[in-house]
Amino acid sequence: MIRIARLFALALLAAVPAAAQRSQTFQQGVDYRIEARLDEPSGVLHGRARLRYVNRSPDALDTIYVHQHLNAFRPNSAWARRELEYGERRFTDLGPDDHAYERFTAVTVDGTAARAVYPIAPDSTVAAIVLPRPLAPGGSLTLVMDWDARLSTLPRRQGRAGRHYDFAQWYPRIAVYERTGWAEHPLLPQGEFYGEFGRYDVTLDVAADQVVGSTGVAVEGNPGYQPVALGIVPAAGPAEALGFLAGAAAEGRKRVRMVADSVHHFAWSADPRYIHEYVSRTLVDDAGRTRPAPGIHALFLPEDTSWARQAAVRRTYDALTWLETMFGPYAWPQLTNVHRLEGGGTEFPMMVMNGSASEGLIVHEVTHQYLHGMLANNEWREGWMDEGFTSFMTSYYREMKGDTAVWRGTMTALERLERADSTQAIALPAEEFRSPAIFSAMTYTKPSAVFRMLREYVGEDTFKRILRTFFAEYRLRHVTGADFQEVAERVSRRDLDWFFDQWITRTDRLDYSVSQATSTRLPDGRWRTSVIVDRSGAAWMPVVLQVGGRTQTLDSRARRQTVNVTTADRPAEVVLDPEWVLIDYNRANNRAAVQ
After folding, report:
1. What pTM was computed for the model?
2. In whole angstroms, how far apart are CA 63 and each of 24, 51, 79, 137, 175?
3. Which domains does the chain have, with CATH numbers?
4. Contact of 514 with 529, CB cutoff 8 Å
């Protein structure tokens, strides 16, 4: 009866418009206009942000929560205290000249002075601004915030060194208000970011020789490689003075205005030594028609030889072009790839900051333009939906390019984790994982294998339709794992509740083994091989059995089953899961010599 009810529910889902099934039925409106001046050599940034905030929720709001992420990179923050639990003192020991900070100097709401309070003090990454009066559903307010900020000399998701600046986090960022309330997470080493979609109109006052790469498109001024005449992008509208950058830029300085629409964050980097490379793109559709596509910028230093001669910009180009075939058209007018101080990489809308130009890193971070950039999940709550999904797509790309061994390392690592009992449920919020290593494995590695199992289970063509449908229905929206599951079930016409429950919310163990394999010669000269397959553990998946040159897929829910396979020649061995698709607890018992 439960099964019948489930199928009936799925039929109803298929008949309901997709928009009605979304877990998040509204998104708040946030438009930022920011003016900021970077002083050198102090590295201090002075800024003013005016935000128009529209309450599209059904709730009256008496408080607005704001993230000040830079305050994570200093002593006594929640981040620093969490690192101490792991025996690390990187930010705890930073001196006053080296740690980061972000401090309000003035806050007003609709012209009335307001005060920021810190509900999880001494951590100051989350600020609460009490409103003079509740903001009713459908209402709007104007929030003006003046602040000073400085990056840390220890690069971690931001940083400064000499005249190089990676402003990944730098301004007061409105927290997301959703159906369940405010998502006002403190910034911790485990977990990343979540923001409201909106328009960013940012004017930066910097030294005249600085080269700037950013989320937005330069519409006024010269970022250092592409002078822009006033009004060249009329849609951006006139620059509305905030009274902060009064008058013309001082001698030896310049102002660059950048605009980005429908993004949930704005990041930028600056270095006077940056070299700029650019490639334009033209796409051809199935009918042979061409259309201009977003261009690719790369900014790197003279010594970054691995980036040069269009190596980085071409890898970025190739990754984005492939992703458009998998999901759909990229939503924004450009993509910028900059070399940052820190190793690894971090994604932002329209921009990636990378520590190297390796193909794997570039593909991973560019994939985030889709998975978290345009399909914006809560990275604290469901990190697997962007990091795990992105890790899978990165390996998928390598498969497409002919890397036949791409999954072996992943599956070997997962088997070690399973056997060491170093796993937790993938669905846990980031801060609930026991260690950074387990967080990484359960957020990146294991989910990537889960997405691969899903692809093999529903079939590659169906999986591609799932990707395109998910993107078409949720582009530039907040998404959840439940949203993805609903699309996957609707497109594949399969009940996948068992799959997501088994692999995402539980830690069930899967272990298939070949207990016995014997061959008998038939009167016609062929060989019949009898294989006994056992299943231990609570998990199950369809499993491929290879006998000689023949393969067949077993339903495999039984604890023990006997399978007979006829082949022309006597097989030497039988193998379960020969392509290493399943997360198997003990792969050593997946093969056996034929007796």
Report:
1. 0.92
2. 21, 15, 24, 13, 11
3. 383-505 (1.10.390.10), 511-593 (2.60.40.10)
4. no
